[in-house]
Amino acid sequence: MQSLRIAPEYRRVTTLLVALAFLVAFVLLGTLVKVPYVALGPGPTVNTLGQLKDGSNGEMIDVVAIGGTQTDPTTGNLNLTTVSVTDNLTLFQAMGFWFSGDDELQPRDRVYPPGKSNDEVDAENKQQMTGSENSATLAALNYLGRPVEQVVGGVDDNGPSAGKLEPGDDIVAVDGVAVEDPNALRAALGRFTPGTEVTLDVLRDGNPVTVRVTLGANPDDESKGILGVTLAEENGDPGLDVDFNVGDIGGPSAGLMLTLAVIDKLSPGELTGGDFIAGTGTITPDGDVGEIGGITHKMRAAKDAGAEAFLVPSGNCDEAKSDTPDGLTLVKVDTLQNAVDGLKELEAGRTPPGC
């Protein structure tokens, strides 16, 4: 019996064909298969003292537009910073981002939680930006001592004021006793026991309205009556208009830089001294600055754009110090006052508190 022998040239061809098949399969896998990761990197920076192109008509508009009052000229930069998110990565794209070292791979569900569509996440980010813009306006007005009024922010659906008070109502008197702030309102209501009907003088859309509410019981002190509403602040100067135009940016982290831009435009002198300052951080109406995500990407974006100093929320300082771009001065901030003081130190050529 003779054994079947395969000629060497056929073995080589077979080996090449098998290798080619594996190569084709690998290329298809790498280019077509999506991985459950996103790439995070430096995003766009926007000068809050500058202008952006209006997406609706192509005209240039102020990022922070103030109307109804005289504004002070500004120069320099107060740039808000962002993180770019690249989604729907193929295996090869993810490998490219990983090898480059410029971007960071993160599990996709950290950015897009399971059960939520991209559109839902984007809508939440837009809502957070709107809240950040409102807080920025109030923080700036509170800092500058400009009029801010307390209004009804929300009404408990099952509370005593349901169907009677509305969000935005300005309660000016309780049974004829004027109230100018939340403490005065609580003191006025504290004179009445639950079940008492009180008469409220309210300004609704600028028009006087009389509302009668039977008070409920305060869960912290059942001897005291409550309206069942939450209070919120809003601009108390009807002639002043503050509008923000940040383009396609979401989330709450632009709050600090938007606040500083409003202050710079509504107060004499310049916060920047003509320099290029960037930063990040959430803001509350009381001026507290909160930490954010992606600080290292934002610092790199700022440095690439030309920033000389970067305002860092104190909660982000440890991470910021771990990867600070060369030549970028970090300014540590806990509050809006810290940020303003730090900018003044920079303008004077001194070194502000850093991370």
Describe the structure.
The chain has 355 residues and is of the alpha+beta class. It has 8 helices and 20 strands. A 6-stranded mixed sheet has the order 6-1-5-16-19-20. Strands 9-8-10-11 form a 4-stranded antiparallel sheet, with helices on one face. It has a two-stranded antiparallel ribbon with strand order 2-3. A hairpin with a 2-residue loop joins strand 10 and strand 11. Helix 3 runs parallel beside helix 5. The longest helix is centred in the middle third of the chain and has 27 residues.
Based on Cα principal axes, name the global outline.
Answer: globular
- Beta-strand proportion: 25-35%
- The structure class reads alpha+beta
Percentage of residues in helical conformation: 25-40%
| Poorly predicted parts | none
How many β-strand runs? Answer: 20
* Spatial extent as radius of gyration: 28 Å
Output the strand order for the largest sheet. 6-1-5-16-19-20
The biggest sheet, with number of strands, parallel, antiparallel or mixed sense and barrel status, is: 6 strands, mixed
Mean pLDDT: 90
Q: What's the tally of helices?
A: 8
Span between termini: 85 Å
Order of SSEs? HEEEEEHEHEEEHEEEEEEHEEEHEHEH
Domain PDZ: 144-206
Region (Disordered): 108-132
Catalytic activity: Hydrolysis of proteins in presence of ATP
EC number: 3.4.21.53
Brief digest:
With 355 residues, the chain is of the alpha+beta class. It contains 8 helices and 20 strands.
